Amino acid sequence: MNPYIVGIFIPLIASLILRKSNNGKKRGLPADAGGEPGCAIRNYRVTSPVESNWEGVSTLAELFEQSCKRFTYKPLLGSRKLITREMEVNQNGRSFEKLHLGGYQWMSYGQAFKAVCSFASGLMQLGHKKDERVAIFSDTRAEWFIALQGCFRQNITVVTIYASLGEEALCHSLNETEVSTVICGHKELKKLIDISGQLDTVKRVIYIDEEGASSEVSLAQKNTSWKITSFVEVEEMGTEKPLDADLPVSADVAVIMYTSGSTGLPKGVMMTHGNVLATVSAIMPIVPSIGTKDVYLAYLPLAHILELVAENVMVAAGTSIGYGSPLTLTDTSNKIKKGTKGDASALRPTLMTAVPAILDRVRDGVRKKVDSKGGLSKKLFDVAYGRRLAAINGSWFGAWGLEKVFWDLLVFKKVRAVLGGNIRFLLSGGAPLSGDTQRFINICLGAPIGQGYGLTETCAGGTFSEYDDTSVGRVGAPVPCSYVKLIDWPEGGYLVTDSPMPRGEIVIGGPNVTPGYFKNEEKTKEVYKVDERGMRWFYTGDIGRFHPDGCVEIIDRKKDIVKLQHGEYVSLGKVEAALIVSPYVDNIMLHADPFHSFCVALVVAAQHAVEEWAVKQGINYSDFSDLCQKEETVKEVQASLLKAAKQARLDKFEIPAKIKLIPEPWTPESGLVTAALKLKREVIRKVYAEDLSKLYA
């Protein structure tokens, strides 16, 4: 037989057979679970929830020590050296900081263990008491992880706080937990100084040594009574006078993690070592062939449970962790000096975790680049993408075998280079990922996306889609540490008896379900319940349905459903997810009022796409804010939303009748979105109250 024919048809037949077997694969199985009546399932791998994968390991401290002994000489923590920091001025006269960064410098597992032990001893030498709490208030970096594990060595509970948290929430978090020692970067130290008079219990501040820290350190020494010490000094103190470890047990609280506060002040979720270890143990077998050859790019906030779990999974597997930042991620990122490699190019990772907002930006960035080139390049991309999409969707006429290799080399190799070229698996969590983005990333990066669903209250454990599941819009089967149950929500019309699939509120049970909220027993009792068998359940408020293979799809959220004047129910999150695929939309918040029969929307305009359209139309404008106010711009964006709504088959009452274009992006720093880039609806409503009133006028 012709080898060319073999090269095409054997992979095609094998893939179709595999897809057929995967389609029939039961990933979630019915479970006998206690508690409130409903429909429960478990992971097909286990008969009861997993607590630990390792004999004799019941805490994160024991897991870390075990890995450091197993992989002593393997690289663990990688950081980039700052070469220069420069200010550049753009055409509008605005100044931007640009960084010239060197390559990655590595600390082995053995060296990291020594650093952790030294930091733990130094912390106690500094005067920190065992019954006091430490807060880590910093961007994600190697020192963050060392400090965390150092605290665990002395059974000290760590309070995690987003670096982007506002003053009120920051004060609340530190005072409520009575933190006595804060570990921070120099930018965060400046924030602490500004609110020093409002902090009741802080005695010590450990600052991470970096360029530019000296001015903040001097300011803190002059204006506060705190004992100010550098991270390096703490390690040196511990090296000189090492102390024996005081290791925790499984039930000890490892972390009090403050949520980013999408509604009101943030709540502190108490997580035991056993809780987090259960999720780490459950995720390990789902990531395909994870091991010492893998390199993981860490850039999401470690104060977010998704990143905290991911990094502990990497440690358990002997993987190398290279630290980066969302602002230096790629060669064209905002803070990267021209000619300098971004974190992904410098590290060339094989594994990454991402939130949907980041993946949406990667998709939009690739599309913009392709569209700007136009001509043959765009035609080639469109053909290649169409062929690969047809193949994934099961068409006999899609690109497989040698044709796939051809398109990968000719078209997609350049796209994959954006994230280093070696990505083999992506984990997405924190919010629903659109099917459009999931497919785009699958094809362009050539890597499966494991879409997960979980909450801070369940230590990110809930469900996780496996690498061989090619479906979109679902979040997989329960992870091996969890039961997932649906219970009736009659008010919203969701019942476990619904056909063709059971529907209802998602309730998660298992050893990963946390004890509750710190100093908030009322809220804890509202959403946590213990059944007659002693299993703890968390009521998520999310609405899901079970597919026949046992996978979960998130279809609604209780808090996001609004009843309009004529009785129609609108799911805000569902509509926003459908409309954000418009190329003109950077972000969107749908607003529904029970006293009106229609919806409106605040749309953060995608500047590049809107300005490109304006140039083609010959529209004159003074600045982007002026362009967003023009009637023709609003009409163009609204037409784009209508197109997206039709593709998603939204009902007429779900489509915003009027929109307001917002020229400024919503960032965690502005306080309008959380650190995980979720909308802070109440805050946005207050800020844009006048605009919303005009839309309903």
UniProtKB/TrEMBL annotation:
UniProt keyword Nucleotide-binding, yes or no: yes
Any single Gene Ontology cellular-component annotation: membrane
Q: Which Gene Ontology terms cover its molecular function?
A: 4-coumarate-CoA ligase activity; ATP binding; long-chain fatty acid-CoA ligase activity; trans-cinnamate-CoA ligase activity
The chemistry this enzyme catalyses reads: (E)-4-coumarate + ATP + CoA = (E)-4-coumaroyl-CoA + AMP + diphosphate; a long-chain fatty acid + ATP + CoA = a long-chain fatty acyl-CoA + AMP + diphosphate
For this UniProt record, the keywords arranged alphabetically read as follows:
ATP-binding, Ligase, Nucleotide-binding
CDD domains annotated for this entry?
Answer: LC_FACS_euk1
Q: What class of enzyme is it?
A: ligase
GO biological process entries = phenylpropanoid metabolic process
Q: Which Gene3D superfamilies match?
A: N-terminal domain of ligase-like (3.40.50.12780)
The highest taxon in the source lineage is: Eukaryota
Q: What is its EC number?
A: 6.2.1.12
What InterPro entries does this protein's entry cite? AMP-binding_CS (IPR020845), AMP-dep_synth/lig_dom (IPR000873), ANL_N_sf (IPR042099)
Location of the AMP-dependent synthetase/ligase domain: 98-518
What name does the UniProt record give this protein? 4-coumarate--CoA ligase
